[in-house]
Amino acid sequence: MNTLKKTFLCSLFVLPSLAQAVNIAGKVGAQSRFFTHDEKLQSSLFAEPELYWSDEERRNSFTFKLFARYDALDDERTHLDIREAIWLHVGDSWEFRAGIGKIFWGVTESNHLVDVINQTDLVESIDGEEKLGQPMLQGTILRDWGVLSAFVLPGFRDRTFPGIDGRLTGQIVIDTHNPLYEDSDKKDHFDYALRYSNSIDIFDFGLSWFKGTNRDPRIVYQSLENNLHQPSGIPLYDQMQQLGVDAQATIGNWLWKIEAIARDDSIGNFGAFTAGFEYTMVGFVDITDLGLLMEYNRHSRNERSPSPLQNDIFVGARLAFNDVQSSQLLIGYTQDLTESSSKSAFIEGSRRLGESWKLTLDVRLFTTDNPTMPLYGIKNDDYGSVTLEYYF
């Protein structure tokens, strides 16, 4: 039995035997992605049910969230994951969590450098926003001087990648069935993390430390025998240690943001940061709020960085219509300052339909003429997607 299943089962046993009220909610939906280069359609169905339980004193609670997708094109995108199965106990000035959870760290829009606890669910979204559930034990102390959390992470989750029939695969197909690990414990390696956060006057900030298996794999190239004769690669997960800081200052309508890391892995040491601002114009047009964003991304490994954001500027605009339907729109553009032909853009929009339905639009565009740039493998994968969700 793998670590994920063990942690899930253990989290169930911590629930008191006394039956209490259980809230069940969630969503189901359908999605279609249309790729403009070859006019190919990728359709899928998904469900994300959620169960929540708490005792009468709200000292103990349990959250269970499952995610499942069936994809008609890509077998690797057809998958099931326990996003959360976590028990929470709340003390007077402390908290303890055990099970499978999701933790988010960071403040910037274009890149989340300090967010290292959960593995990326890459088949769900190219922007890395979707995460797999992570087995964890978390203890948190809440004091006037701030919030201090300690994590023990007793199991590793491999990153998901599109399959041979999928899209947004890059120039090679990733063999996810035979991953490599630097540590001999492989998936059973124990990772550790600490985070301190606080709010002082106009500043919100966090300091973090992580030691364990790198969530970002290196790709080891190999030959692949298949009908398409595509080259393939095997993900290699090395050990790393990372120090991170994220901070945000609120000054009137301005939000000034920064995330920075120093990481030591098997290749060597490097640093990276993302810094910028968001300026919000309230009542820009009638009841519409307009937020203007700009961020700069820098990676000390330059062209050797596997990230496309190694020396890039991001600009964007966020529209909140403040209507009953909660309509909103986010537009973003990223330009590589080293290679002028390397750029990407996106449009994300959503609107509620009635009380239980939601319609989401997502457009992604990728451009580069340089074969050495990370975007080159997906330059023909421009797409637009429409998602219809029903909430229950």
Write a structural description.
- 3% of the residues lie in helices and 56% in strands.
- It has one helix at residues 3-13, and strands spanning 22-35, 40-54, 60-71, 79-90, 94-101, 134-143, 146-153, 173-174, 180-181, 191-200, 203-213, 218-222, 232-237, 239-251, 254-264, 269-285, 288-299, 311-320, 328-336, 343-353, 357-367, 383-391.
- The chain is built from 1 helix and 22 strands.
- A hairpin with a 5-residue loop joins β2 and β3 (60-71).
- The chain has one domain: Beta Barrel (Porin), CATH 2.40.160.
- It is mostly beta strands.
- The strands form 2 sheets. It has an 18-stranded antiparallel beta barrel. Strands 8, 9, 12 and 13 form a 4-stranded mixed β-sheet that branches.
Secondary-structure topology with pairs:
Elements: H1 3-13, E1 22-35, E2 40-54, E3 60-71, E4 79-90, E5 94-101, E6 134-143, E7 146-153, E8 173-174, E9 180-181, E10 191-200, E11 203-213, E12 218-222, E13 232-237, E14 239-251, E15 254-264, E16 269-285, E17 288-299, E18 311-320, E19 328-336, E20 343-353, E21 357-367, E22 383-391
Parallel strand pairs: 8-13, 9-13
Antiparallel strand pairs: 1-2, 1-22, 2-3, 3-4, 4-5, 5-6, 6-7, 7-10, 10-11, 11-14, 12-13, 14-15, 15-16, 16-17, 17-18, 18-19, 19-20, 20-21, 21-22
Organism: Pseudoalteromonas holothuriae
Keywords: Signal
Protein name: Porin
